[in-house]
Amino acid sequence: MERSTNTIAWHALDTETVLNKQDSSPQGLSAQQIVERQKKYGANRLPQPARRSWLLRFILQFQNTLIYVLIISAAITALLNHWVDTSVIVAVVLINAIVGILQEGKAERALDAIKKMLALKAAVLRNGQRITLDAEALVPGDIVILEAGDKVPADLRLFNAHNLNIQEAILTGESLAVEKQIEAVENSAALGDRSCMAFSGTTVTSGQGKGVVVGIGVETQIGRISGLLSEVKTLTTPLVEQMDTFAKWLSVVIVVFAAFVFAVGYWLLQYEFSELFMAVVGLTVAAIPEGLPAVLTISLAVGVQAMAKRHAIVRQLPAIETLGSISVICTDKTGTLTRNEMSVVALATYGKDYEVSGEGYAPIGIISNEKQPVEQKSEEVLRLMGLVALLCNDSQLKKEANEWGVEGDPMEGALLTFAGKIGLELDSDKKEWARTDLIPFDASHRYMATLNHEHQGNAAIYVKGAPEKLIELCTRQQIDSENTAEIEHQFWEKKAEALASQGHRVLALATKKVLIEHTALTQQDVETDLVLLGLVGLMDPPRSEVIDAIKECYSAGIEVKMITGDHALTASAIGKHIGLHNTDRVLTGAELDRLDEAELLQAVKEVDIFARTSPEHKLRLVSAFQAGGLVVAMTGDGVNDAPALKRADAGIAMGVKGSEAAKEASSLVLADDNFVSIVAAVREGRTVYDNIKKVISWSIPTSTGEAFTIIIALMLSMALPITAVQILWVNMITAVTLGIALAFEPTETNTMMQPPRVRNQPLLSGTLVWHIVFITALFVAGVFGIYRYAIEQGYTIELARTMAMNTLVVMEVFHLFFIRNMYGTSLTWKAVKGTKMVWYAVILVIIGQLAITYLPIMQTIFKTEAVPFQDGILVIAIGVALFAVAETEKQLRLVTKKYRKANKAKAR
Ligand code: ATP
After folding, report:
1. Closest C-alpha residue for ligand 1 atom 18
2. Same domain, yes or no: 362 and 498
3. Which end of the chain is less crowded, N or C, counting CB atoms within 10 A of the terminal residue's CB?
4. Which is a GO BP term held by this UniProt record (predicted)?
5. Enclosing domain of residue 465
6. Ligand 1, pocket-test mutation among 333, 342, 439, 507, most atoms within 8 A of CB
7. Residues in the chain with pLDDT < 70?
């Protein structure tokens, strides 16, 4: 592959020379050129770091305190010639390593899929057409369009820049954005001074620009510095780390405790060394939850994948946990609650109001006044409005397979469609009125203006923006085809309100003629003699599925707040439609500014809709919600939303309309911008947390139950009801089957009917500790009970032990079915049916247990005997009994909780 020509000092050459040298033009490359260059230069990406080899991965699995303890135990049992025990322990270690590797594979696949979904996009001009493509597909000579919030996708020599500011900290360390321009600079200019260049990986903070690609992949400045993409993160969250540390400490405690048991047994109770040692090894191995860390990671990987399937891409893994505890979702309106499929449906001019018909983005439709179609071209005001819609516009309509769509902002697409319906020739009229300068749209000033020159020597400024803003800026209004008059503010404000209260997004269109010599556009130009032409009302239908999602939030104790840049009345109309609680009171950005902190804290509790807000308001609102003790999810799309997204507990960026800057500041990206996906992510977040809790609630009593069976027997100086090697077997067969199944549990029916989890709630809660004690006691009672029964029946000690071991396993299986439902009853068909994973696990366990009980060779190794049929039934009955007792206890607990809650509510 040939290298791109980045040894040339592109910054020192003028734009024309650069375009010539790249054999390109401001209209972009041809299809033929692109194919050739892709072959010649390859993809625009940095090399990936090499993956670790299987062998290395395998070896790394053994680096774990829990495993060290197991290996030492294996070595000592081997020294004592207890080969069966050694092999079972070695098998436990190996199976664990294999599960570890598989788990890593799953985690890696989950992360890879995410990386693909987050691939950088670039807007380019090819063959005169604006298209969006993966940044990897860029070739030298491509023309890239830059807008606020974009991440620069390759090294570019700029040939067009309007107020273009780029933050280059990753290259220069300078956190202030630098203003870009298009003139060549000194050959010797330092990187930070090459103001006519835009470098790959840097972020556009404001303005617009265009540049020609002069370096891709490793040939970019960032490629030369870093050479490689950064290493993939491992799948972990604070909670899992906490559990990891917990597991480590637990093993230390277990070893110390085992040593204590050994000492008591040896010196006080006078056990024979080898027998006692084996029993202690058995209890140690059983008590150590060696599979736990791996299973927790699997739970996370399953969660990440489940979220990705629901269009929520986790960028920062701790977000999975945070999402489960969200108590308020602050959401944008456009595109998140609504479809972002816009169409102009109403017009208001000084003299007349109009309706606009037509389907989708097809520029065909009828404009009528009082139900009578009008001859658009003959109405000069309409023609002028069409011109503003067409020229003060950066998007393009495209027709693919007979479907009209938009490349760029859907609202601008709707305006182009509208211009078409007015009767303008979209392509030729746009060419006729070449754009000379531009003030790009910015959420802080809420308008966009362009300066255009026509071939015949006319020049004009075209402005579109929020009605309040333009009504304030304009000094005149167009009253008919020829005449203008002084603006009547009240008239227009009423018109705008009438349109907004129907849920329409309202835009005002304005214009001003200027002299042909006028070639640079400034804010001042827009502030004098601007003529208001009229208003357009755009319809953006709410997403119908949002209504249910909001209901689900409410039942899950999650508040929903709409924070929009749109008009208060538009926001309120949409809010009503989608079922927000409080839609009568809307707080605007201007009103927010007037509130002090205490008033704000009160207001955010009562108000559900915040309109005409700017990104700074979002930041203030997040802080206010957090001060009120809420855990906040906040959506955002623009470059200026980044501080609020970072501040929120879960920052959520829009994948489709969101800027790269917003994505980088957020912990979650929505692939489809849809509010429903946020709720799905919260649901999955809760599920992951529940599953982690289930894994822990199952594993720990299982370990303690197994361990205490041995400890109690030792302490009571009685024969072990299950031998050490049998305990090792049970530990091995259940840990890798039953233990893992819980990581794949689906969401419980009642998960979204619980209030949000309190943040930083300790995992080992009082309830969990009680559960551990309770289940351990039941396990011990079950095992000793059946053992005693068997001995009393006159069975051999081997048969009694076989029955005790099988009882332990059966109880673990029933315990698993019990754990699957934390919030409701386990006695439903759905609960019994379980999941595929649960049944695979149970079937494996049954096969294992049948083998160890009935296969002669296994009977010799593990000293077991075939269990008679009726006793087999008894063993299963004990499992059923455990389930019944545990379920009754849970139901009593749930009922008491409900009763207490009701009492508390009454007392209030
Ligand atoms: P939402 O929260 O609903 O997504 P938004 O983020 O689209 O709102 P802003 O982008 O801040 O809101 O826009 C605020 C207002 O600015 C809009 O209501 C509209 O009147 C005006 N506006 C938006 N985009 C443009 C544009 N490209 N050109 C001119 N005016 C615009």
Report:
1. 566
2. yes
3. C
4. potassium ion import across plasma membrane
5. 343-539
6. 507
7. 1-6, 226-236, 376-378, 760, 826, 831, 908
